[in-house]
Amino acid sequence: MANGLSKSFGGIRAVDDATIAVPQGSITGLIGPNGAGKTTLFNLLSNFIKPDRGEVIFDGAPIQQLQSHQIAQQGLVRTFQVARVLSRLSVLENMLLAAQHQSGERFWNVWLKPRKVREEELRQRERAIEILETVGLAHMTHQYAGSLSGGQRKLLELARTLMVRPKLILLDEPAAGVNPTLINQISDHIRRLNQEGLTFLVIEHNMDVIMSLCDRVWVLAEGRNLADGTPEEIQTDQRVLEAYLGQ
Ligand SMILES: Nc1ncnc2c1ncn2[C@@H]1O[C@H](COP(=O)(O)OP(=O)(O)OP(=O)(O)O)[C@@H](O)[C@H]1O
Ligand SMILES: [Mg+2]
Question: Ligand nearest 38 Cα, by number?
Answer without folding.
Answer: 1
